[in-house]
TrEMBL record:
Pfam families: BSH_RND. The keyword Transferase does not apply. Residues 1-29 form the signal peptide. GO terms for cellular component: efflux pump complex. Keywords: Coiled coil, Signal. Gene3D superfamilies: 2.40.30.170, 2.40.420.20, 2.40.50.100, Helix hairpin bin. Residues 101-128 form a coiled coil. Belongs to the membrane fusion protein (MFP) (TC 8.A.1) family. One of its GO terms (molecular function) is efflux transmembrane transporter activity. Residues 72-176 form the Multidrug resistance protein MdtA-like barrel-sandwich hybrid domain. This is Efflux RND transporter periplasmic adaptor subunit.
Length: 366
């Protein structure tokens, strides 16, 4: 056998190996699937709309008496007693003053006696009518007289009741306008009574404030008593529609509950704070605030944010309105509660797969 035969066999096997090796490697590569890259975790926060804040307006005010009523007797006579002094707190129905009742009691006794006499006569004549001795025409005038006597008796009793002056409501006696032994006619003021169940505060509103403050039940207000620092919750009661003489102001009356332990008297100074609604911004697009780190800057200088939409990062162009500490105020084609990627936006690409996690949720799991 020639020595060249083994060598030629070796070269043949070598060529076969070189031909088969790529095929074997290719088959192995097809059997092994490439490893998937996991989606990037992105911490997100919901967009919050920026609502214009209401504005607080402050004005000086004064305590006013809610109801001041002059009390008078409904009958004439001589004042016998006045039972209260100025500053006395009284309750509804409490006696305040008394007239001399002598004349009214005499009238009442006389009316009662006459009524009894007429009723007795009527009883006798009805008996005679039943026996046929009297005709009905003789009894009818007496019946009318009995009715009139009853009215006179009731009127005399009412005059006795009206000789006592009582409080129509809970309040404070502000002023005594008469004294005992004075002879007064019907309607002569005797006492001035103030209602102390509520407190009223008057404010002079300038024209600019009257234009924008809601002059209705929606008005929010509070007052601070200057000398005591006590805060009062106030609400709208009424307002004038004509300016006050000598000034372009309109009178606003607020009402509230009086604080316990304090005597609020008319004329006391009050600092009044009114809430003016935020101005309407119909011509401006809605604005939102986002973390400052969420704002990205494009090469052309425009700003954008990354929104988490259906498991992907999506670019949203925005307008940067202003910066407030670590927050940015933005506007654009945005919606409230849209999830915004709060940080790491410089490493994202449009359409990149992400796994959105709320920042507050992630903080609670670590």
């Amino acid at each position: 056998m020639s020595s060249l035969e083994p060598r030629s066999r070796f070269h043949a096997l070598r060529r076969l190996a070189l031909v088969c090796l790529p095929l074997i490697l290719s088959a192995c590569a097809e059997d092994e699937a490439p490893a998937e890259v996991p989606p990037r975790i992105a911490y997100v926060e919901p967009l919050r709309r920026v609502d214009p804040a209401p504005e607080a307006l402050r004005f000086p005010g004064v305590v006013e008496s809610v109801t001041t009523t002059q009390l008078a007797f409904q009958v004439a006579g001589r004042i016998e007693r006045i039972l209260v002094d100025e500053g006395t707190r009284v309750e509804a129905g409490q006696p305040l003053a008394q007239l001399d009742r002598t004349d009214y009691e005499l009238q009442q006794r006389e009316a009662t006696a006459r009524l009894r006499q007429l009723e007795a006569d009527l009883t006798r004549k009805r008996a005679l009518l039943a026996e046929g001795i009297l005709a009905p025409a003789a009894v009818e005038p007496l019946q009318a007289n009995v009715v009139a006597a009853r009215v006179a008796r009731d009127s005399a009793q009412r005059d006795i009741q009206h000789s006592t002056l009582t409080a129509p409501f809970d309040g404070v006696v502000a002023q005594r306008l008469a004294e005992p032994d004075m002879v007064v006619s019907v309607g002569t003021p005797i006492l001035e009574l103030q209602n102390n169940q509520h407190v009223e505060v008057g404010v002079d509103l300038p024209e600019t404030a009257a234009l924008s403050v809601p002059l209705n039940a929606e008005l929010q207000a509070e007052g601070e008593l200057v000398i005591a620092g006590v805060t009062l919750d106030l609400h709208y009661k009424e307002h004038s529609t004509q300016p006050r003489e000598g000034s372009r102001t309109y009178r606003l009356i607020l009402q509230g509950e009086p604080p316990e332990g304090y005597n609020l008297l008319p004329g006391m100074a009050v600092r009044v704070r009114l809430q003016r609604p935020a101005p309407l911004e119909q011509d401006r697009p809605p604005r939102f605030h986002v973390p400052l780190n969420a704002i990205q800057t494009a090469p052309d200088g425009n700003h954008f944010i990354w929104a988490a939409v259906d498991g992907q990062a999506r670019r949203e162009d925005v307008r940067l309105e202003r910066i407030e500490q670590d927050q940015a105020i933005i506007s654009g084609d945005l919606a409230e509660e849209m999830l915004v990627i709060a940080a790491g936006g410089s490493k994202l690409a449009d359409g990149q797969a992400i796994k959105a996690e709320r920042r507050d949720q992630s903080a609670g799991t670590h």
